[in-house]
Predict the 3D structure of the following.
Amino acid sequence: MAERIKRRSVLAGAGGAIVANALTSAFVTAEDASKVRQRAAIYIPQAPVGRQCSACRLFLPARTSQPAQCLVVEGPVVASGGCVLWEPRVGSLTGGGQP
Ligand code: SF4
């Protein structure tokens, strides 16, 4: 009996872990799927001044716990990077041209 309960507990625990992993994977995949791939956005790590991620309204600066991110382009980006989806920050005086 004790063996049966123990086995059931282990299986339930393993099932929970599998479900948790599946949910985590689904979340990460869904988040990545909602963003444009860097290649499709023609992202480059060194864009011309005035067209860089740091001057884009879609840029999320790096924090201690995570690298810089973009709201629409997948993966980490850098402040000096840029892509064809660049949009000026509100109040920015720069603009025009391609990265
Ligand atoms: S849209 Fe392009 S330029 Fe703007 S932050 Fe994202 S990767 Fe950088």
Observations:
- The longest strand covers residues 59-60.
- Residues 1-34 form one domain.
- Residues 21 and 27 are 10 Å apart (CA to CA).
- The first helix runs from residue 2 to 33.
